[in-house]
Design goal:
This protein has about 200 residues and is of the alpha/beta class. The chain has two domains: about 5-130, Rossmann fold; about 145-200, no CATH class. It is about 50% helix and about 15% strand. The chain contains seven helices and seven strands; from the N terminus they run βαβαβαβαβαββαα. It has a five-stranded parallel sheet with strand order 2-1-3-4-5, sandwiched between helices. A two-stranded antiparallel sheet has the order 6-7.
Length: about 200
């Protein structure tokens, strides 16, 4: 099954910049949305929830810094990576952008290859972050399942490898855990058992 392309929202009040970025990103396989104003971009981000936003700093009305701050203050859009793009080269402007919540800062004139490289990097990081979140959620679920096994479980005092289940039947520990959890098992020999086997008279 083909995976749908990542969506990138580009916000810039200069039509020439929008045209260059639209062509470059589209050619690279992205779905591209274009806005010319920060306030419009805020609503687009809520409605569409793009995978990443490339945001110009110097715009009339709401500038890129304020737009970024508002995106990060909104629970609906706070997790969307924002790359700021500007002709400002003073380090204090870069710091301002990063403090506003941007993940990266690109200076103009636009180099499409640089923009593509930064976008690809941050989309990859975002996907790794989401994968980690999913794995953590799965781990928490597994731990919750294991906790349901807490309490007194009747286990054979002689062999130590059989458990009496809720029906009163004696089953192996492996069977019990596979029945009551999502765990599966591979089998090997622990060092103590290996030693006993090797020392048994033939």
């Amino acid at each position: 099954m083909n995976q749908s392309p990542d969506t990138v929202l580009v916000v810039d009040d200069t039509p020439a910049n929008l045209a260059v970025l639209f062509t470059g990103l589209k050619h690279a396989g992205f779905k591209v949305l274009l806005n010319e104003r920060g306030d419009v971009a805020l609503q687009t981000a809520v409605d569409v929830h793009p995978d990443l936003i490339v945001l110009d700093v110097m715009m009339p009305g709401m500038d890129g810094f304020e737009t970024c701050r508002r995106l990060k203050a909104d629970p609906r859009t706070k997790d969307i990576p924002v790359i700021l793009m500007t002709a400002l080269t003073d380090p204090i402007d870069e710091v301002t952008g990063l403090r506003a919540g941007a993940v990266d800062y690109i200076t103009k004139p636009i180099n499409v290859e640089v923009v593509l490289a930064r976008i690809t990097t941050h989309l990859t990081l975002q996907k790794l972050y989401h994968d980690l979140e999913r794995k953590n959620a799965a781990l928490e679920q597994a731990l919750a399942t294991i906790k349901t096994l807490s309490g007194i479980i009747p286990i054979c005092a002689w062999c130590g490898s059989s458990i009496r289940d809720e029906r009163g039947d004696w089953v192996s520990v492996t069977t019990y855990l596979e029945t009551h959890t999502d765990a599966s098992f591979t089998h090997t020999i622990c060092p103590a058992c290996y030693e006993r086997i090797m020392n048994e008279p033939s």
